[in-house]
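step 3/5: co-fold with adenosine-5'-[phenylalaninyl-phosphate]
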Amino acid sequence: MKNRLQAIRAEFLDKLKQAQNLDNLREIELKYLSRKGELSEVMHNLKDLSLELKKELGELANNIKKELENSFEETKKIIGIKDDNKVFVDITLPGEKVDRGHLNPITVIQREMEDLFTSLGFIIADGPELESDYFNFTALNIPPLHPARDMQDTFYVDSKNSDGTLDLVMRTHTSPVQVRTMKKFGAPLKAVIPGRCFRNEATDARHEHTFYQFEGIMIDKNINFANLKSLLEIVGKKLFGPNTKLRMRPKFYPFVEPGNNGEYTCFLCEGKGCRVCKNTGWLEIVGAGLVHPDVLRAGGIDPEQYSGLAFGFGLTRLAMLKYGVNDVRAFNSGDLKFLEQI
Ligand code: FA5
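step 4/5: write tokens
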């Protein structure tokens, strides 16, 4: 049997050397390597041998099989290239599935908003996520020890000012970039600022420690509340459809005066009341107001000459509404099953 194996090996390699085209190769494969080929037949007969011989010849047979298969594949590659009219393609093999990625839902909404605002002449501005305490709070009319700081607790970085107060914070909102853009570009100014924010929250289905906002600021002569209202109406119609209505209710934000909460009619029930709007018919979407004179001054703009409007959407919450996501924590979970289905 040992001789038989060596003879098959020699014969196979000889025929392979002489093979000219893919048809020759198929014949060789059938005769020696197929299930009913000569090599398989010898291997099948091993079962009748003693345990010791079976072990010895079994190993030899396997090594020869591997060697012949490798030589066969090598020759197939070479002949496949030469024989260019007959490239070896096995059409019975399943195709290779290529996974396609897609944009994160928050990015989709961010881009939609950016498109809308750039079409209205706004620039897109950016600012640091690790922000100074001054820009995040003080420049926005929230001085140290002011009770309004309690509304937005954050993560402080261990770096101190000369007076011992903590200097750097993970920004709690995109509003610090209002003052940064005012200082950079002056007035008049029309800018939107998308970005990631952080808060030290007891997280729940609607509150995450890391989330996205979409800020807007517009400064010019005679900017008033009507400008703010009409701008927010345009956004509501773009996001939720042409019948969407806006209502604005007073809310305290230290950096705007008057400050308010913008609510849109619920896109799901169109104001009738449902589980998404908790039966109120309205969805709280945006904080907004007219820029406080102190904030204009912090940005180097004279409030006697200019006035401004500002707003801040919760971008993550918008994505939750648009895609019917009922737990904000899913966005940061890294769970591909969640991200792929959106
Ligand atoms: C602010 O952050 C203000 N800077 C918004 C603003 C800008 C007001 C300009 C006036 C002028 P507020 O804390 O309400 O406001 O947050 C705004 C939105 O961010 C909320 O409506 C909500 O949609 C989103 N948000 C706030 N905290 C979280 C959180 N922990 N998780 C997810 N989204 C949040």
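step 5/5: annotate
The beta strands are 123-124, 130-132, 156-160, 166-170, 189-198, 210-220, 246-250, 256-265, 282-291, 307-314.
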